[in-house]
Amino acid sequence: MSVPPVPPVPRVEVLPVGGLPEVEPGADLAEIIAKAGEFEDGDILLVTSKVVSKAEGRILAAADREAAVDAETVRVVARRGRARIVENRNGLVMAAAGVDASNTAPGTVLLLPEDPDGSARRLRARLQELTGRRLAVLLTDTFGRPWRTGLTDVAIGAAGLSVLLDHRGRTDAHGNRLELTVTAVADELAAAADLVKGKTTGTPVAVVRGLGDLVTAEDGDGVRPLVRPAADDMFRLGTSEALREAVTLRRTVRSFTAEPVDPAAVHRAVAAAVTAPAPHHTTPWRFVLLETPEVRERLLDAMLAAWQRDLRELDGWDEQRIARRTARGEVLRAAPYLVVPCLVMDGSHAYPDPRRAAAEREMFTVAIGAAVQNLLVTLAGEGYGSAWVSSTMFCRDTVRAVLDLPDGWDPMGAVAVGRPAEAPRHRPAREAGAFVAVR
Questions:
Q1: pTM given for the model
Q2: Interatomic CA distance for residues 213 and 230, integer angstroms
Q3: How far, in Å, CA of 122 to CA of 124, rounded?
Q4: Whether the Cβ atoms of residue 246 and residue 380 lie closer than 8 Å to each other
Q5: Angle at alpha carbon of residue 60, lines to 59 and 61, rounded to 5°
Q6: How far apart are CA 257 and CA 288, in angstroms?
Q7: What's the CA gap between 215 and 135, in Å, rounded?
Q8: Where do the structural domains in the chain lie, given as residue ranges?
Q9: Interior/surface letters 179-213, b for 16+ CB within 10 angstroms, e for the rest
Q10: DSSP characters over 152-212
Q11: Where are the beta strands (DSSP E) in 295-368?
Q12: Strands (DSSP E) along 4-127, which ranges?
């Protein structure tokens, strides 16, 4: 099979635009740039966002930079001491919301342009008017990268350029079909331009020449296509923030879709569950996984019969009242997967008096509670909803008989697992003060 010819590689130049004066608020930045350089059709101008911010008056007198960061932040992604990675109003995730105390007068900070894409469009239109050339404009700022040391420039605003090049469906030089390749061309251009702009040379503008085919007549969609939606972001939080969010955003889910639960995800959750603390270096947890509808139905029918019998014979309730109460158990029937956590007292100490014997069991009960919490939080991290229901604790003999469990396994409720049928309602944060006693 013949290999198709490789297309010629374009000659690309990256040129600094020098001689720009200090930019003051209200300055016509496009006129300053137009006077400083000579441009050709198809040139791509890379402009450091700081000079755009200065021209737009985004200078803030701020004795406390952190207060300025607070004002620009919509979500904290990660925090280590005073250092913060945050999301700003434009969806950009970056250190300190892009608030910069460098290259500005003492006692002031620079904020990012309020609308970087809008700034790029206005700058492009004015530059094309002044130069008569077909141009594209990218606004850039300095970012760190997850998993990588060092900084690089990326695009935060764009006009006249598609920021992504989608190669999917094409073939490479060997005829292999490309399935996943989407190139962040705007960020590649920003990084290349920074090689000639530098951080300390006072050269805030560069030109990339030789890629005129990338320049579009329309302004385009800006940088929004570069911003990964939170739902698709596998690394949307730092470690401690992710742990806290997993705990605080976990909800009791009472309505599930019919989508099957991946058993491997449950096994991963169990593996996390059994890392819980336990007394005497024991492992007092067992998890019974009910993966087939037949087993779930058999258990729930037996539990329902036991519940009805208790309400009828021990509480003296009539059938109508019993039906209303037992309807609460429908959350277990509606779930596509059930987990029955069990407590075992293997390794527990035996005491002759009731006081210490009760304390010993309470220690083990706390351990199974910690394990169940680990299970629920890990399931939430896997994208599954859950509901812990205590009903198996009221009919342990019935559960052991149906599931053929050893006598020493004490069922400690049941956990319904599945994909939530609806988004959980907002739950206001709870302050710790009401639950704390300081001595």
A1: 0.66
A2: 32
A3: 5
A4: yes
A5: 130
A6: 22
A7: 7
A8: 13-232, 249-435
A9: eeeeebbbbebbbbbbebbeeeeebbbbbbbebbe
A10: EEEEEEEESB-S-EE-TT-B-TTSPBPSS-EE-HHHHHHHHHHHHH-SSSS--EEEEES-G
A11: 337-343
A12: 13-17, 44-48, 59-61, 73-80, 83-88, 93-95, 108-110
- Residue 435 three-state SS: helix
The overall longest dimension of the chain from CA atoms, in Å, is: 96
- Token code pair at residue 138: 């990218």
Provide the CATH topology of domain 13-232: 60s Ribosomal Protein L30; Chain: A; (3.30.1330)
CA distance 113 to 358: 64
Handedness of CA 36, 42, 47, 53 (dihedral sign): positive
Query: Could you give the angle at which helices 396-403 and 293-313 cross, rounded to 10 degrees?
Result: 150
Residue 398 φ/ψ, nearest 5 degrees: -65, -45
Q: Name residue 317's amino acid.
A: W
- Write out pLDDT tens, residues 29-73: 999 999 999 999 999 999 999 999 999 999 988 767 888 888 888
CA atoms within 13 A on the CB side of 106: 0
Per-residue pLDDT reduced to its tens digit, 266-293: 999 999 999 999 999 999 999 999 999 9
Read off the tokens for 309: 């019998």
> Is CATH 3.40.109.10 the right assignment for the domain spanning 249-435?
yes
- The residue with tokens 């925090």 is 79
Q: How buried is 326 (Cβ within 10 angstroms: 0-12 exposed, 13-18 middle, 19+ buried)?
A: middle
What's phi and psi for 137, nearest 5 deg? -130, 130
How many other CB atoms sit within 10 Å of the CB of residue 9? 6
